Amino acid sequence: MAPRAVPSTGGQAAPSARSAWRDVPPRQVRRFAALALEEVPALAQDILREIRAEYPGLPVVLDDSGEPMALVGIRRALEGFVQQLASQEGRPRYHLEVFQEFGRGEGLHGRSLDSLQAIYRLGVRLAWRRLAEIGQQIEIPPPAMYELAESGFEYLDGLVDQSVRGYAEAAAREAGERLRLQRKLMELLLSERRPDSGGSAPYGDRGQGHSAKQGAAALGGNLGERAARVGWQLPERVAVGVLLRPAREAVAPAVGEGVLLDMEAEQPRMVVPDPEAAGRPELLRRAMTGWSGAIGPPVPLADAAKSLRWAEAAVRLMERGLLPAGEVLHCTEHTEALVLLQPEELIEDLARRCLAPLNHCGPAHGRRLAETLLAWLETRGGAPEVAARLGVHPQTVRYRLRQIRELWGDEVDDPDRRFELELVLRARRLRGQLGRA
Q1: Nearest in space to 280 (alpha carbons), one of 237, 323, 242, 314
Q2: Are 3 and 151 in contact (CB under 8 A)?
Q3: What is the pTM of this model?
Q4: Which of the two ends of the chain, N or C, has the fewest CB atoms closer than 10 A to its terminal CB?
Q5: Cα–Cα distance, 313 to 340 (Å, whole number)
Q6: Mean pLDDT, residues 264-274 taken together
Q7: In angstroms, rounded to a whole number, what is the distance separating the alpha carbons of residues 425 and 330?
Q8: Cα separation, 3 vs 84, whole angstroms
Q9: Is the per-residue pLDDT at 219 higher than 80?
Q10: Burial readout 123-136 (b: 16 or more C-beta within 10 A, e: otherwise)
Q11: What are phi and psi of 241, to 5 degrees?
């Protein structure tokens, strides 16, 4: 191989450094290369034997012909180096796909490249020992051999680069495959197409005895197998989150191990296992800094789709400005808004019927009467209690309550009508149509 050139300085070409290897007569170089090539098969066997002795756990992978790939790689590396000894090329060429394959193998098996690079260095040391003997045999000057050794380690760097490239490719492929499998798992978890569970309590809480196995059975399919392929342990309870991106190219939040995250969706989703476990809420809070969205209520594993529905409903209300934006909120802390604001058409229809008596009042006066009625319904107290809640004089409250009774009559004494009135008035207050007491 040709010696390394001295790098250029400034805009002018620098004079080439004197090369001890180039000073070796061509006939002597050819002789050295011929002897080295003759040694390659036996030398490759010796190197592989030493490597196996040093690293007994090294897996033996055979190529299509049944020959160990490690032996093939060592032999090709030696041949590639020796064949360039007499060339005029300034840098070696690397066409050794087998070393990329070594790197891919390390990546696919979850190992680091440290041991592989140590093996390479061991192989170079052993090869150099034999090449030095050949150089001494045909009397190549020591300075030329020193230069050859330096080029040999440069060649080693090229082989390492090949392995690093293969390792990176395998890591990217593995990460992509894991994300694909994780999305498939989430699709199954959040699917509505599963056997009917026979009804459930609010938020899908069917009691503490609902195990992860029962949840997996209710979801059907090969849930356990899919979870195992991504290393996800089936939890008994989950909470599902829906996120709003702070920016188009936002980096995925560091939600921690065990949380399934799908960033491919327009609104990213996540499945949080054991959401009430110690430390989990605080970890999520820190991870979600800068993000907004909603996390549905904790539910049994088989009811993950229900938690998703609540989270989606909360996000829709956030986008309309009816729930706080700029943070990741928990649905369990906003139950009233989710219950009263989500079925908007039903609540509005009920409001039109329940609040029809206010149609004959002016907007400002009707609002004051509505606020007084809601305060009275919530406190069930007399004029002093309602006045304290509204911040007005008790006599003002008495006047308004007389008007309310004139407008609604005996309906304000009916428990069902009072319940409906409180529902629609609370919904209007949540929308900002009434003041907050």
Answers
A1: 237
A2: yes
A3: 0.55
A4: C
A5: 11
A6: 90
A7: 24
A8: 11
A9: no
A10: bbebbbebbbebbe
A11: -110, 150
Alpha-carbon distance of 413 to 336, in angstroms, equals: 24
Nearest Cα neighbor of 316 from 333, 298, 297, 292 is: 292
Give φ, ψ of 296 to 5 degrees.
-70, 170
The answer to whether 299 and 238 are in contact (CB under 8 A) is yes
Question: Mapping DSSP to helix (H, G, I), strand (E, B) and coil, where does residue 338 land?
Answer: helix
The percent of residues above 70 in pLDDT, for the chain, comes to 82
Is the CB of residue 243 less than 8 Å from the CB of residue 270?
yes
Kindly tell me if the per-residue pLDDT of 225 is higher than 90. no
Quick check: 162 and 67 in contact, CB under 8 A?
no
Report the distance separating Cα 103 and Cα 163, nearest Å. 4
- Rounded to whole angstroms, how far apart are CA atoms 298 and 238? 5
The continuous run of DSSP H or E covering 237 comes out as strand 237-244
* CB burial readout 181-210, b (16+ within 10 A) else e: bbbebbebbbeeeeeeeeebeebbbbeeeb
Residue found by looking up tokens 């943070």 in the block: 327
Residue range 186-218, pLDDT digits in tens: 889 998 654 444 444 444 444 444 555 555 555
The Cα–Cα gap between 208 and 205 comes to 8
Cα 113–119–121 angle (5° rounding)? 105
Q: Specify whether the CB–CB gap between 342 and 318 falls below 8 A.
A: no
Which string of b and e fits 10-21 if b means at least 16 CB within 10 Å?
eeeeeeeeebbb
pLDDT tens sequence across 14-70: 445 677 888 888 888 888 888 988 988 898 888 888 888 888 877 777 777 777 777
